[in-house]
């Protein structure tokens, strides 16, 4: 059930969360599937609904930095600088976890992912939850495990069904998931690129950002970091613009059931569905998941995507595309 996120719908959702139910929630990045972070039984429902392995930890969303000590045992100086610079906003910090808190959400880690979203509906819901004693809300992206993240309430409903209460807060402005920085290793480590770039992170905390490959890891701790993720049904292929054009020329009238997301409209027939790839990384991020979903829904067998430039502002989009294509 999709509800326009007015005051009464937000109050209803807060009560549902307090009572141990799950709720679909808009954020500025993507929609989340939310449950009370400290209610292990409620959190377990998220894993079931998504089909997500229980050892993949969830991000806890808080109304403000004041709730950080509820979940985190310690905040290094560089992490505090990032909180000051970017919260509320699309940045998740992995911090040492308070022992015994949000155990199911942490998926077996002794750390916890914390994020303070800026979307006004998420903010209002988290404050309403706090007033009911719910100090944080665990919310992974509201898609089935491994699939494309949802950026509208309708996407959430098509992923998770009619029965779920979903707050409709419109289209997500950012369109790709938050940047994740691991702050448990003595230096900032980039686990997942996003709208907030590594350049901005380095400027805000005055420290070089390390790559996760440079840090020894026992197990994959972020599903957003699995090689194959964000996958539509259609096969995604990343290609240079001139290769798209050349292959379409070679196929001629045999190019069918094909989606193309590229900057310049290719010269092709009706069997090729072209969607314009924006020239700004921000706009491309905003469109990315809905374009993949829309082409998928039209039944194309392949989606050819022009590989964006290898520059810092495109890192988040490139990352999602590379894993959609894996
Ligand atoms: O933008 C976002 O972050 C969205 C919205 C809903 O807030 N949420 C989101 O959640 O993308 P999810 O579960 O799809 O991705 C969270 C990522 C996962 O890859 C998870 O493994 C990682 O964060 N993560 C969470 N807690 C962690 C921890 N303690 N250590 C390492 N990675 C963690
Ligand atoms: Mg996800």
From TrEMBL:
Q: Has the keyword Zinc been applied to this entry? A: no
YrdC-like domain: residues covered: 7-196
Q: Which Gene3D superfamilies match?
A: DHBP synthase, Threonylcarbamoyl-AMP synthase, C-terminal domain
The EC number(s) attached to this protein equal: 2.7.7.87
Please give one Pfam family short name: Sua5_C
Task: State if Nucleotidyltransferase is listed as a keyword.
Answer: yes
Record field: catalytic activity: L-threonine + hydrogencarbonate + ATP = L-threonylcarbamoyladenylate + diphosphate + H2O
The places in or outside the cell where this protein is found are: Cytoplasm
The principal localisation class reads cytoplasm
The molecular function terms of the Gene Ontology recorded here are: L-threonylcarbamoyladenylate synthase
Q: Which PROSITE patterns match?
A: YRDC
Keywords (alphabetical) are: ATP-binding, Cytoplasm, Nucleotide-binding, Nucleotidyltransferase, Transferase, tRNA processing
**What protein family does this chain belong to?**
Belongs to the SUA5 family.
Q: What does this protein do?
A: Required for the formation of a threonylcarbamoyl group on adenosine at position 37 (t(6)A37) in tRNAs that read codons beginning with adenine.
* UniProt name for this protein: Threonylcarbamoyl-AMP synthase
